[in-house]
Amino acid sequence: MLANERQRRICEEVNKNGAVTVSDLVKKFNVSVETVRRDLLNLEKKNMLSRVHGGAIQITHVKPAGDFSVRKDENRALKFELSKIAANLVENGDTIAIDAGTTAMEFAEVLKERFSDLTVVTHALGVFETLSSVAGINTILIGGMFEKGERAFYGPIATKAYGDIHVSKTFIFPTAVSISTGVSDFNLNLSEVQRMLLKTADKVIILADSSKFEKASLIKLCDVSPEHIYVSDSKLPDSIFELYKENNLTILKG
């Protein structure tokens, strides 16, 4: 197979699955690792993909998210699926922090049914409303300026409050996750609160449905890190799953 044809098919794989691994391409095209790396380098120079350790990813930017009331029903089954996986990382007796967002609402519903002894800190009004009436779940609502579109609090009051607490686990719900561009979101007001949340916990768990992986949003929250746990659903392509593992990232999916 000529190099041009092989590179065209590599692009098709990246665009279809969001990522490719060097090991899979070596097997698929029966060529050497060096040949695949040259192909990826050439394609990166043409701005057709972005190379990362162990493979390459698609270059995709997401648009600002739509209205909260509309988003809450988008990919709802996937959000519920990954929320159940993430709930396995919670234990009765834990003190946890929960970010805002529509996936956070699904996560709160799962916690509501499964746990009877938790302390939950959140700046998301919907999460607070879901959990505050549950026997055995103590809730702390972080206040501040209110972002009506996202039904969450932000600003210096919120960030200071989070700066004064410590939790065992924090659950973040970003707009996009990418090995090359990091964990990102679109809301400038809430991003400062999310950054503070990343500092409050012993363990950080990042939840994103499969449509959000290997995408980039406006505001970077942090780099992807082996210290964090990433949770997605069963529709996450195997190529992305394997690429994260090759980069020593802990990723769970349905």
Tell me what you see in this structure.
The chain is of the alpha/beta class. Helices cover 40% and strands 23% of the residues. The chain has two domains: 3-57, Arc Repressor Mutant, subunit A (Orthogonal Bundle), CATH 1.10.10; 68-252, 3-Layer(aba) Sandwich (Rossmann fold). It has ten helices and 15 strands. The strands form four sheets. The chain has a seven-stranded parallel beta sheet with strand order 6-5-4-9-12-14-15, with helices on both faces. Helix 2 (22-29) crosses helix 3, helix 6 (102-114) runs parallel beside helix 7 and helix 8 packs parallel to helix 9. The model has no long low-confidence stretch (mean pLDDT 92).
The shape, in one word, is elongated
CATH superfamily of the largest domain: Translation initiation factor eif-2b, domain 2
What is the CATH-assigned architecture of the largest domain? 3-Layer(aba) Sandwich
| Tally of DSSP β-strands | 15
Q: How is the biggest beta sheet arranged?
A: 7 strands, parallel
Mean model confidence by pLDDT = 92
Radius of gyration: 20 Å
Indicate the percent of residues in helices: 25-40%
Structural class: alpha/beta
Number of helices: 10
Count the domains.
2
